[in-house]
Write a structure and sequence with these properties.
- With 531 residues, the chain is mainly alpha-helical.
- It is built from 22 helices and no strands.
Length: 531
């Protein structure tokens, strides 16, 4: 069977991956709901979330999340020239990836007791011992992630997207299954079942499925430790390996410094961050991914004017969408957290404690959007070093701020510094880009943001009023039903008021929000008419 299969429609591939992301996010939310229901905030939940700091760092250190970006172009070109040579290059990268992650994982496994002291300096000795146990269960999962990413790169080159799309679903499914089943069978205690689920999900979803799929299409693994393209691969991956930016370390800082903020802080911050990452993924990351191919094409052609115009459009449209979305989420943070997490061991008091943390974190979402698009603009110009250096410096600068504020302000201090770090990183990228490329790409962004805020604030007023008075108006309504009413009615009122104001004062904003939907409806109508 030839390596490169017949071309598939990009729309079908995008649909597969979009469905995978959607289902994966829902499964992740269900996973956190199960954890919050059974364990609430504090205790085992704090230890479980902290157990991912070291494994995630190892993955970031070896550019595991970016291996496709660096490997696919080189591997695809190699396969096009000489398939046998392509397999030799793949075997070299695969062997180095497996060897490097195996050695680092073994060292971390041996040093788990000491690492638990660094990961969670605020835990008492008993909790650190439990953390070391969790670490030794979760750490070996990394041995499967990195080689599995190499195999998935081959599947992407073949235009086979189904198995990579299944990977996160199998991973989350194993965590849920083991977390629920193993304690009932007496094979694990507390949250150990979830940890074993991480290991099983990595082995089955991240490695075994891609291995079987690649082998079915023809796998000729040529183990080796040297290849002429290895140096080029490492050079491309190096900025990702050493540039531990705020975007990468943000979650780890929340866990490490959250351990200094008292019991329960790590869990509450994690639950808040989980909700915050929804608009980041749906709006900010989507804007960056969607703009990247256009920016890369214009940069390759040397079309500076087109590059600036496209970047300006992507940034402006991102702000138009993300500001009202973020504002509504800030206003509705309490009902959102209550509706999703409240129940079981997660009490109303936990919802009240998590709400301000989520509201603070959400303030950084517009800057996530700016960073995602601007960062992709640097990548489009084949500059991976500048975002890595800027992010690393931002991370280093925030560490003393964490140390100064967290002992005084606790979990809100962690959330505040997390927000400030993203603001610093995004601002640094914008300043550097403006100085290098001129102001055309960033013209009118501040005006767009202020105009959008002027529309958003009046639309929020009835939402705030509804959330404040609803408990007094519905004393007999169960909390879950009250929260649902607040979200449904408040969301509808906000959307209606914002749309009316935008139609009157900013029709260009409304066009950005509605045109994609209207175009899709027109295409469906045309297709139905022709049928």
């Amino acid at each position: 069977m030839p390596l490169l299969t017949s071309r598939q429609k990009m729309g079908a591939a995008a649909l597969i991956m979009a469905f995978s992301v959607l289902v994966s996010r829902l499964m992740g939310l269900v996973r956190d709901k199960v954890i919050s229901w059974q364990f609430g905030a504090g205790g085992e939940a704090d230890i479980y979330f902290s157990a991912f700091v070291v494994p995630d760092f190892l993955n970031y250190l070896l550019a595991g999340g970016y291996i496709s970006i660096t490997l696919i172009p080189l591997l695809a070109g190699c396969f096009e020239r000489d398939e046998e040579e392509g397999w030799r290059f793949f075997g070299t990268v695969f062997c180095w990836a497996a060897l490097a992650i195996a050695v680092l994982t073994a060292l971390a496994w041996i040093g788990a007791p000491r690492l638990s002291e660094w990961v969670a300096p605020g835990f008492e000795p008993g909790r650190r011992e439990r953390l070391a146990v969790f670490l030794r269960i979760v750490l070996p999962a990394q041995v499967f992630f990195l080689p599995g990413a190499c195999l998935s790169a081959v599947l992407y080159i073949r235009r086979q997207f189904t198995v990579p799309a299944l990977t996160p679903l199998v991973y989350n499914g194993c965590i849920l299954l083991c977390g629920a089943l193993l304690p009932r069978l007496g094979l694990a205690s507390g949250m150990e079942g979830f940890c074993w689920g991480v290991l099983a999900g990595a082995a089955l979803g991240a490695f075994l499925l891609p291995w079987l799929a690649v082998r079915a299409g023809g796998l000729r693994l040529r183990p080796g430790l040297s290849h002429p393209l290895l140096g080029r691969f490492l050079l491309l991956a190096l900025p990702f390996m050493i540039g531990q930016s705020v975007v990468v370390l943000d979650e780890q800082f929340v866990r490490v410094f959250g351990s200094l903020a008292g019991e329960g802080a790590v869990s509450l911050l994690n639950y808040a961050r989980r909700i915050m990452m929804v608009p980041v993924g749906v709006v900010a990351q989507a804007a960056g991914v969607a703009s990247f191919p256009f920016l890369a094409s214009l940069a390759a052609r040397g079309d500076t004017r087109g590059f600036h115009h496209t970047l300006n459009t992507a940034l402006r449209n991102s702000l138009i969408v993300v500001i009202p979305v973020t504002a509504w989420l800030v206003a509705a943070s309490g009902p959102i957290l209550g509706f999703i997490f409240e129940g079981g061991s997660f009490r109303a008091a936990d919802t009240a404690a998590t709400t301000p943390l989520l509201q603070i974190m959400l303030l950084a979402v517009p800057f996530w959007a700016l960073q995602q698009v601007t960062g992709r603009a640097f990548y489009a110009r084949q500059d991976t070093l500048t975002p890595a250096v800027a992010g690393t410096l931002a991370s280093v600068l925030t560490v003393p701020v964490y140390l100064a504020l967290v002992p005084r302000w606790g979990a809100p201090g962690v959330a505040l510094v997390t927000c400030l770090s993203l603001v610093l990183y995004a601002s640094a990228l914008l300043i550097i880009a403006r100085r290098r490329w001129g102001g055309d790409a960033f013209e009118g962004l501040a005006r767009t943001a202020w105009r959008n805020l002027a529309l958003t604030v009046p639309a929020l007023a009835p939402v705030w009023m509804l959330i404040l008075v609803l408990p007094a108006w519905t004393p007999g309504l169960p909390p879950l039903a009250r929260q649902f009413v607040a979200l449904a009615v408040g969301g509808s009122v906000f959307l209606a008021v914002y749309s009316l104001l935008a139609r009157r004062f900013a029709p260009d904003f409304l066009a950005v929000l509605l045109d994609p939907v209207l175009r899709r409806l027109r295409r469906r109508g045309a297709a139905g008419g022709s049928a």
